[in-house]
């Protein structure tokens, strides 16, 4: 094996409960042969809230590790030498804050900033489209992104200050052409902003381009995904040369990491997810000239809940078998000269260029976010994908075909087939936060926040003031709170109102439309469904598809987007006089948030308004929710949205006096 064919960086995406528990998991994974860290942060950390904020209730430690201050980062990387570690942090709105904490913690270990290697995701544009963990309006968010890029190019030169993230675009329904075009449009928006900002001298702009990385998705259509990545290489090289004048081929290289597709993982027959993950891994490793620089694989049971350490180990071993047992790394690019591959690559390049031109004509990626164009396009393409699955046109093994199955020993006990977050994690985080605030110097904190406020008023780089805050003991919520105060808050377009669902819809749609109409006539008015997303979970794809299908079958749909408190959802149910409330939660906070909505409706006198829940809900939790008054629970195995709508009508009929 030659030096140039050494394996990619192997990671698992990990973090939960607390900094100490996540540190133990990191060190176990490194001991098993993992060669880099990929840190998952919980939703309060990602959106800039401390554990004691009302929106953080039920979310602390659920989908990642809570980081409130420098002490948490010290604990998170305890006994892990950061000067020698390649660390990827999936963090966007608060990326500047987390890198500041990381840099200070590394310096306390004795590392210098120029020794640090890793990546902050820091792609805020896709947060408005798919994940929903934005904190500030687009223009202010782009300032934070570009300030971090300018700072790292000079001060942390081996760090990747952003990876333009197309992964979540595919999760939100993007076609390969849309994934290419929207990601590259984001890259153009960021690079144009950095170039216009004047913080980086023109003769160093090539250094900026060279540090741009990408984080992509790989679906199960691995030939198409291979072609997508070869198209990515070609398009990026063209942009670097013709838009930014980068002449060094090394600086123009497409540098990307990958997490293979989680959207296609199924709750039904979840053992099939293993072969899906392997095929998806091949899509980003087979082509040497478009091979990923880092790979992290999901676990077979991610559609069921949080993977256990053993599940993560299984996914790591998949990578190791491919890299060390197969002959993959011994050959040049095996697709060079294939007319089939070349034709597909050319088709993707042409389609992506047309879409990039369309976005640029609108004023660029940020303008296309603010107008709702990008979100509407994703919601529409996702609706088309769902319809293909429901009709059987797109086969999903074990879901809409080959559904007969032997009992699986992997899921014989579903309650132990996933890892559960310690219910005491949130209380521990609150205690830790209180202790941290009590032991720090209040005057230093006040002065640091004042310097951040002053910096935000001007146009200078915000990173120096952010580093001062990190060293003074400021918390995540305090740092973000000052910037919310200065920049304001924002609600992104939902993409639902302008999206087309099923066209005509066939006999099933017609039957449910008739059922909705008949029930509405019996109840004396059009049926109204409130679709709500309580808490900080910004993964709104499922909620959007439910909203679109409900509208298609004749419901009047009230959908106000993400990040609502239970009180806001109850108030909307009262104001809109709804017949049913549908709650969507994928972050694991359903046991805390759903009962609050149910109790709130009862307190408001809406005892005849049923609540239904959708999300990744283990069986034991589903039983508990139903015992607490929830009428129905839907999970990823319930892929038939039209059938779900018929069921919701029955729920409304049963609840009506």
Low-confidence stretches: none
At CATH's second level, what is the architecture of the largest domain? Alpha-Beta Barrel
**Strand ordering within the main sheet:** 1-10-9-8-7
Strand count, sense and closure of the main sheet? 5 strands, parallel
Shape: globular
What is the CA–CA distance across the termini?
A: 73 Å
CATH topology descriptor of the largest domain: TIM Barrel
The secondary structure category is alpha/beta
Instruction: Give me the oligomer status.
Output: single chain
Number of β-strand runs:
15
* Alpha plus pi helix count: 24
- CATH homologous superfamily name of the largest domain? Methylmalonyl-CoA mutase
Overall tally of domains: 3
Given this structure, which CATH class of the largest domain is correct? Alpha Beta
Mean pLDDT across residues: 92
Q: Proportion of β residues?
A: 5-15%
C-alpha-based Rg, rounded: 24 Å
Helix content: 40-55%
Cofactor: adenosylcob(III)alamin
Keywords: Cobalamin, Cobalt, Isomerase, Metal-binding
Protein name: Methylmalonyl-CoA mutase, large subunit
Subunit structure: Heterodimer of an alpha and a beta chain.
């Amino acid at each position: 094996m030659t030096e140039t064919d050494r394996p990619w960086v192997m990671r698992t995406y990990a973090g939960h409960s607390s900094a100490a528990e996540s540190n133990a998991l990191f060190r176990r994974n490194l001991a098993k042969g993992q060669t880099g860290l990929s840190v998952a942060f919980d939703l309060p950390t990602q959106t800039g809230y401390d554990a004691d904020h009302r929106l953080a209730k039920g979310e602390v430690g659920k989908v990642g590790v809570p980081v409130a201050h420098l002490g948490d980062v010290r604990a998170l990387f305890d006994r892990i030498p950061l000067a020698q570690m390649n660390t990827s942090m999936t963090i966007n709105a608060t990326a500047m804050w987390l890198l500041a904490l990381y840099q200070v913690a590394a310096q306390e270990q004795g590392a210098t900033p120029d020794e640090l290697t890793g990546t902050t995701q820091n792609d805020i544009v896709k947060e408005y489209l798919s994940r929903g963990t934005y904190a500030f309006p687009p223009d202010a968010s782009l300032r934070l992104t570009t300030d971090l890029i300018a700072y790292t190019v000079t001060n942390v030169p081996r760090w990747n200050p952003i990876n333009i993230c197309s992964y979540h675009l595919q999760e939100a329904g993007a076609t390969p052409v849309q994934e290419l075009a929207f990601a590259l449009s984001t890259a153009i928006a960021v690079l144009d902003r950095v170039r216009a900002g004047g913080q980086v001298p023109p003769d160093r702009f090539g250094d900026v381009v060279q540090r741009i990385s990408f984080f992509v998705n790989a679906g199960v259509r691995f030939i198409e995904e291979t072609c997508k990545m070869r198209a990515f290489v070609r398009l990026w090289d063209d942009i670097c040369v013709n838009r930014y004048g980068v002449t060094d081929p090394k600086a123009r290289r497409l540098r990307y990491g990958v997490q293979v597709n989680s959207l296609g993982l199924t709750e039904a027959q979840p053992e099939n997810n293993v072969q899906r993950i392997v095929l998806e891994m091949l899509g980003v490793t087979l082509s040497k000239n478009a091979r990923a620089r880092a790979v992290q694989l999901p676990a077979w049971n991610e559609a069921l809940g949080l993977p256990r350490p053993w599940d993560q180990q299984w996914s790591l071993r998949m990578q190791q078998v491919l890299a060390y047992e197969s002959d993959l790394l011994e050959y040049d690019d095996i697709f060079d000269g294939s007319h089939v591959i070349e034709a597909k690559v050319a088709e993707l390049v042409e389609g992506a260029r047309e879409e990039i031109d369309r976005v640029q004509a609108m004023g660029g990626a940020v303008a296309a976010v603010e107008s709702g164009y990008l979100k509407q396009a994703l919601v529409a393409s996702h609706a088309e994908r769902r319809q293909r699955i429901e009709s059987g046109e797109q086969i999903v093994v074990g879901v809409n075909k080959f559904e007969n199955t032997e009992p699986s020993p992997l899921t014989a006990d579903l309650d132990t087939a996933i890892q559960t977050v310690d219910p005491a994690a949130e209380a521990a985080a609150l205690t830790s936060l209180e202790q941290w605030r009590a032991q720090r110097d209040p005057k230093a904190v006040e002065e640091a926040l004042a310097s951040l406020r002053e910096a935000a008023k001007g146009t200078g780089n915000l990173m120096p003031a952010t580093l001062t805050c990190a060293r003074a003991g400021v918390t995540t919520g305090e740092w973000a709170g000052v910037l919310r105060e200065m920049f304001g808050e924002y609600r992104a377009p939902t993409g639902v109102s302008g999206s087309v669902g099923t066209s005509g819809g066939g006999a099933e749609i017609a039957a449910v439309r008739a059922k909705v109409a008949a029930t509405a006539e019996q109840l004396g008015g059009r049926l109204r469904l409130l679709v709500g997303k309580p808490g900080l979970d910004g993964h709104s794809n499922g909620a959007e598809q439910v909203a679109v299908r409900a509208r298609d079958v004749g419901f009047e749909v009230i959908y106000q987007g993400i990040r609502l408190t239970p009180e806001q959802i109850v108030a909307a149910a009262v104001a809109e006089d709804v017949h049913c409330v549908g709650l969507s939660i994928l972050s694991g906070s359903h046991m805390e948030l759903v009962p609050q909505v149910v109790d709130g409706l009862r307190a408001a006198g809406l005892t005849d308004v049923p609540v239904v829940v959708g999300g990744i809900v283990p069986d034991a939790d589903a039983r508990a929710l139903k015992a607490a008054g929830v009428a129905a629970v839907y999970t990823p195995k319930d892929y038939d949205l039209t059938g779900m709508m018929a069921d919701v009508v029955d729920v409304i009929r049963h609840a009506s006096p």
